[in-house]
Structures are given as structure tokens and as C-alpha cells.
Amino acid sequence: MNGVWDAQRRALGSLIRDQRRLARLSLRQLSALSHISNPYLSQVERGLHVPSVRVLQAIADALDLSAETLLEQAGLVREHVGPRPGPGSRRGTDDDRAVERAVRADRRLSHAQKEALIAVYRSYVESASPSPAPDPGTRR
């Protein structure tokens, strides 16, 4: 079991390093942006430490990602868990989750833009759900 945790810790560190490089940031720059010491951040990237939620959030913010995205891409959580769908809602299908994952992975969008886009997407999907047929005896 310990080997699994070691592998996950290394995967998370590797992912953070890859995201930092994709953002074209040096370790010092990410350290300054996230307000995390350079040596500690280096140890996190090398998989020597598991960052706390606060540290993970600071890193994600500095990289303009959500902490959930970091955890998802590192394989530490399955997917983003949002509000439970209501009765008759189509949210939660594999296609819907794939769209949301794609939006969350788009590095061109800020976290706020991603959340807004997903909210709009969900509203469209929910409004497209089949509604009950009108009662023929009612007038509009």
C-alpha cells in the first residue's frame, strides 16, 4: 500500500512540475507567485512531500488551475463532483463529464471563466432535457 502512496505523490509532483513548465515559469517564479518556499516547492515537485490543501491551492492559483484539476490530472480523484443532479436532469452523463473535464483542462481560460462556462453549459443541458407534454385541456 505504501508503494501506491509513493507513486501518487510522485505523480502529483511530476504534474505540478509539468504544469509549471507549460506555464513557462521557473521554480523561483512559481515560488514567488504561490508564496511557498523554493526548497519546499522543489521537494513537492520531486515527490518528497505531500502538499497540504492550502499549499496545493496556492500552487493551483499560481498556475491558474483549480486544485481539483491538479488532483484529477494526477489521478488522485476520479472527477469533479458538483451538485447532485435533480430529477429528470441529464447532468452526470459521460458526455457531460467529458465536456466539463475539457473545459477545466483548457489552460487559456481562467478559473472563473471555466466555472462560468461550465455553469452556462449545465443550464443549456438542463433546459434541453425533455419536458413533460402539455395537458391538451390547458390554454396558454
Written overview of the protein:
The chain is mainly α. It is 59% helix and 0% strand. It contains seven helices and no strands. The longest helix has 21 residues. About 6% of the residues have low confidence.
Largest sheet: none
- The overall pLDDT, averaged over residues, is 78
Task: Please identify the oligomeric state.
Answer: single chain
State the helical fraction: 55-70%
Shape: globular
Radius of gyration, in Å, reads: 20 Å
Unreliable sequence segments: 83-91
Beta strands, count: 0
What is the CA-CA span between the terminal residues?
64 Å
What is the strand content? under 5%
N to C succession of SSEs: HHHHHHH
Number of helices: 7
Estimated structural class? mainly alpha
